[in-house]
Write a structure and sequence with these properties.
The protein is mainly α. The chain is about 55% helix and about 5% strand. The protein has 11 helices and 2 strands. A hairpin with a 4-residue loop joins strand 1 and strand 2.
Length: about 230
């Protein structure tokens, strides 16, 4: 089951939430994003984890890693024993990217929690929908990633008291920078290769994630290059 509802995951991810750093995704990210668009989540995931685990400035990779994990959790070829693990890690990565202000992750969580369908999940989805309405970066670009029909379904699924409580909680939302995790030896080599390449002057004009980078592949129609 795909949790996405508009465009491809990597294209939706560009132009994400506020608070992103200037480091940008690491080497291999463009390949991983294309693999996600092709539905090759298992191949993309190790790269995305390496990039995302560098922390602040890599929210787009954290989002795509979480998205990929949720897709794998429901993929017919995934062994049943791995599904809960994929689902748990997927939600954790999406939550951390959303908490860091990445709009695509916030919107993805709304749909994902609605798909889960429990009362607790629906309330959590409504929370992220309320937070997303205050995402100033997406609003500045005229982006609205949550379909009106889904918002209406969320509104109808809870009582007025619950809705008011969740909305009040959303007003207290504060950004939490994405935290770095210890890199595996394989990830460390990937990061080191990128640093060596950038030291040679190949990076060009560095900008934040989803904001136009030197040597990556361009996503058509978005004017966005990511390395």
């Amino acid at each position: 089951m795909r949790y996405a509802w508009t465009r491809s995951a990597s294209r939706r991810a560009c132009g994400g939430g506020p608070g992103q750093g200037s480091a940008g995704p690491a080497s291999g990210f463009t390949l991983a994003a294309r693999l996600v668009d092709e539905g090759r989540y298992e191949t993309a995931l190790p790269i995305l984890r390496c990039v995302a685990d560098q922390g602040h400035g890599y929210e787009i990779a954290q989002y795509l890693a979480g998205y990929s994990l949720l897709q794998l959790a429901d993929h017919p070829a995934t062994p049943d024993i791995l599904r809960p693990e994929h689902r748990t890690e997927g939600f954790e990565r999406l939550e951390s990217a959303a908490a860091a202000g990445w709009g695509a992750a916030q919107a993805e969580l709304v749909q994902a929690y609605w798909t889960v369908g429990s009362s607790e999940a629906v309330e959590r989805g409504m929370f992220w929908a309320s937070v997303y309405t205050r995402n100033t970066r997406d609003r500045a670009y005229g982006i609205d990633r949550i379909p009106d029909a889904l918002e209406a379904q969320l509104e109808a699924a809870v009582s007025r008291d619950v809705r008011e409580h969740v909305q009040a909680e959303a007003t207290r939302f504060a950004l939490e920078p994405l935290q770095a995790r210890p890199l595996t030896p394989e990830c460390s080599r990937l990061v080191q290769e990128r640093r060596v390449r950038n030291a040679g002057g190949q990076r060009g004009q560095g900008r934040g994630p989803g904001g136009g980078r030197g040597i990556g592949g361009q996503f058509p129609g978005l004017g966005t290059e990511i390395d």
